[in-house]
Amino acid sequence: MRRRASVLFAMVKKDLVIRRQMNLNDVVATVVQIVSPDALLRSCEVETALQPNLPPITGDPIQFQQVLLNLVLNAFDAMRDSPVSDRKVTIATEWNGDGAVRASVRDYGAGIPEQARARIFDPFFTTKTEGLGMGLAIVRSIIESHGGAMAVDNPNDGGARFYFTLPVKTGPSA
Questions:
Q1: Full-model pTM
Q2: Which domains occur in the chain, in start order?
């Protein structure tokens, strides 16, 4: 099984992906459209907090959609037992003038237990009763294959926040 995971990660990392310059906010807008019917079925609200005028990033927009879709659908799952009034997912983007754009997906579920946070991105690790535990490992692999980094925390007012950074495009050859 671990060999299959290695093959899957190798496929994600291959340079067969179409890399192009893009604005991450456009990717977020597409993902919000894709998840809207599912959000309605699950009685979840999806809101965005997108910083305008983000610098461009370079990468495969389909893979970035996969990353955000996985994180949003996980957020929906995390709030399955929450009161309907608390089922909100926030997708945010920001740039602080440094060399990276940051995006986050935040839910208001139970959060990630402390002992699980260290392993949450490991292949075959899951906190769910169903699933293989591959989604977040693939998400991390995609982000890292684009020169970024992935992390998770539990905000003080509840829930979980998964976030990633991606390098901004610098110079004509980037």
A1: 0.86
A2: 2-167 (3.30.565.10)
